[in-house]
Amino acid sequence: MDAERLRAYLLTLPHVAETMQWGANLVFWVGDKAIGGKMFAVIDLDDPSGPGVAHKHGILSYHAGPARYPELIERDGLFPAPYSARHFWVSAESWDVFTPAEWQREMTAAHALIFSKLPPRTRKVLTLPARELKRLITERRKLLAARGSRS
Questions:
Q1: Band of the pLDDT at 57, cuts 50, 70, 90?
Q2: Fewest beta carbons less than 10 Å away: which of 124, 129, 139, 150?
Q3: What is the C-alpha to C-alpha distance for residues 118 and 135, in angstroms, rounded to an integer?
Q4: Rounded Cα distance, 38 and 31, in Å
Q5: Domain spans, the chain
Q6: HEC per residue, 27-91
Q7: pTM as predicted
Q8: What is the third-level CATH fold of 3-150?
Q9: Phi, psi (5° rounding) for residue 85?
């Protein structure tokens, strides 16, 4: 597995949106953040400081949930995610922590956990027809940008 292959898989999951934030980090959301979506995975695209040097934040962080979190942080190559461990996020040191099929299962589970935590209003918005949802997201982004420029 690598960042591009995992990205391609994540984008096949229902209602997934991606943003680039905090430098070179691909952030994956269940539902666009403009309509109240929530993050479920972050891929760090920054190169580590040299060959053989581990990523300080991991190559990928994701929501593991309270049930799986204790088990996962005991696994070699996984550790509590910086800044997010209290919310049951884990980070991976390398792509070989899991097989490609295991990565897909982990990401599907993270997606499902976060989807279940979305507010009812956001879940209802996600049921809108695609064209209407896209229009709503565009309008909401414009509104948020206008609010941000006034600050």
A1: low
A2: 150
A3: 20
A4: 7
A5: 3-150
A6: EEEECCHHHCCEEEEEEECCCCCCCCCCCCCCCEEEECHHHHHHHHHCCCCEEECCCCHHHCEEE
A7: 0.86
A8: Aspartate Aminotransferase, domain 1 (3.90.1150)
A9: -60, -35
